[in-house]
Write a structure and sequence with these properties.
Blueprint (H helix, E strand, L loop, with lengths): L1 H25 L6 H34 L4 H29 L12 H14 L2 H23 L8 H17 L11 H7 L2 H20 L24 E2 L19 E7 L18 H7 L3 E3 L2 E2 L8 H7 L21 H7 L3 E6 L8 H8 L3 E3 L18 H11 L8 E6 L16 H10 L7 H5 L2 H21 L8 E7 L19 E4 L7 E3 L3 E2 L3 H13 L3 E2 L1 E2 L17 E4 L8 E4 L2 E4 L2 E5 L5 E3 L3 H24 L11 E2 L3 H4 L12 E7 L8 E10 L9 E7 L5 E6 L10 E9 L6 E10 L11 E8 L1
Helix pairs in contact: 1-2, 1-3, 1-5, 1-6, 2-3, 2-6, 2-7, 3-5, 9-16, 13-16
Length: 777
Amino acid sequence: AARVFNTRPALLVAVLAGRGGEIAAGMPAGSPAWAYGEAVQAAMLHDLLALARFLPLLFLASAPFLASRSERLRTWGINVFWGLVVLAQAGLMEYFLTARVPLGSDLLAYSAEDIITTIKGGLEMKPVAATLIGTALAMAAFWGALRAQRARWRPLLKPGAGAVILALSLAAAFLLPERPAYVSGTEDAYNLALNKSAFFYGECARYAARRLAGSTGLAKAPAGGASAYGRLDPAYPFLRPEDTPDTLGPLFDLKGGQPPNLVFVIMEGMGRAFSGPGAELGSFTPGLDALTEKGLYWDNFLAVQGRTFGVLPSLFGSLPFGANGFAALGEKMPQNITLLSVLKRAGYSESAYCGFDMDFDNDRLFYKRQGVDRLIDQGGFGPGYRTATVWGYADADLFDRALKDAPAWGRGPFITVLKTSTMHTPYSFPGQAAWAARFEARLSELGIAEKDRAAYRAHRDIYTSVLYADDALSRFVAEYSKLPAYANTIFVITADHRLPELPMSTRLDRYHVPFLVLSPLLKAPARIRAVSSHFDVAPSFLALLSHGCGIPTPATVTWLGGALDTDLSFRNARDIPIMQTKTDLVDYISGTRFLSKDVLYDFVDGMNIEPSGDAAAREELRSEFGAFKAANAAFAAAGSLMPAGAAAELRPYDETARLGGAAASYGSGGLAVAEVRAPAEAAGGTMEIELVLSNYAGTDSPAFVPLAVVMDASGGEVSESYGPPRALGHGGTVTMKMTVTARVPRPGRYFLTVFPSDPETGKKTGKGRYRVPVVFK
């Protein structure tokens, strides 16, 4: 033990050298000096905690060769073993710097082929030389420190002292938390501070423990645990009657009940943080923004997976995850009901296109199980196209390839799925250099101050990829609109998840994605603030087609979602489990509360979150989430969703029977700023804003004043402005105007936070709206 602890400084020097490089490379461009200080302080806290907890494991692994009487064996043993530890830490840090998320146990849930493809994509984005240089520096620091110690190989600690330290470290391994709790700051800052080795090994250990528990029969739902999901048979925890109401029907004018064509576009990595009205980073999708003005656009829409693996099962089947995602079951995928399978039986012809290999994440097998007729992927584009990256073809080529086939998609109704890939590592596409000027022009259009542009330019490849993908999408919709089939087509445009390489501000940011329904069959466009998710898409479109076109639907289903909520005001009437990676089922939403890795948050319009101290609500959500996880584990263990033949039992739409599936009204949350309406830009440091405040509580609100805080891009406060005092009766809503005055140091883009505050103390007394972009000229 004494020898282990005496040689430990060499390992510490190597880790610190690597850590310094990680922070220097990982901090956003243009960060002030104090931000680096905070990052170093947070990283040291994580590293010291990891050191205290992992010392016993390092001792056990090092003891065999350090106990040797041979100095040569001790020297070579420590060089080789701890050298491997340093190399592993360096590799995990490099992964984070490329992906902006730490690597965890999700690595264990991918096939060797998928891992190799992902690594190749990452290496295209970040030259191998950069990785080798960083690793070489860490190893040089390790060997240099170890060589300096060789002159004093005799233990500096006596054996008794080594035994005491070992005993204390054993206690620390069991008593100390794995890592500091996430309390404030951004998600990206917390991930940067994480000790990447401790995170990876801890996540892998937990995954192995869960798999072991499942294999020994422990993954069984408790009695009644699945009652909130399935209502028909305890053996099938998600089986329930089909009672989804048709919430989309009143918004459409279907032509005499003729079944419409459906075109789904799944944009890889598109997030609301950089797309759409009020985007936190500014919208880099002007084409999609223009389309939102013509369709139904959900401001607060959620993907239910943090990576691509789950988007097809959730979007088209509202299906549970199982152990590693539904599609990961491969040939063992059980009988299921999806939008694709039901419409196939109703006479729809079906096609799917993507620029990459459909075998990734088992997409090909999932499509085939649903009966999709035409599958075009990386191996089937034909002559005239060239791959852009290791993943495959760029988005413009994908849309062009689909348009060539569009006239043959079907004489009757058809459904076509397009899945893009340009907004993925390595963020490269043909002619990318020419888009740099367009990127700079967009920064000016968004009012990004020159001092803030370094952070954007550090991710130029990503932002140009977003602009390119948006342009390709816009041109696809424009070209398709010239075809005769367009008159009876409904477009559904969404994303699989938000790309992680642009630093995320909150844990919920990962799942906040655009969702647009666009069609000449719509009666009118609308901007919808109610919360919905991918789980709600298949049930809602089947209800629309069943009610409006007479297509029979299954009598029983296993939907995790329900009807898309079309309310124009902010609310959430759904319980939404979310799987972050293939091995991390750690996030859950109920009402306006978000439970993430056992920490409770409240969220508001715009999907901004803040920590909640409501212990009772936390326990309630833990119980609900536990019931879902038990039901999900029971499905994973049994490998079946429904009795044989259940999918074949079809029924027409029954208005009376569907009433039970209607969304509940939003009835909790207390006093809140429901909406902030600000001008596109303001001059002279003054702007007039309009607020909508609502009291969702069952009692009258206390007296309050609206407080508006103007902040710069780094979160620094610029000014505060107060509105007139008010009080609201229970269930009351008021629209009011107030003047915001800000002596901004320079023209540019700022952010507005508005919340109700106590007139005497200024403390917050309700939920607010956060980081609303404003431009001061």
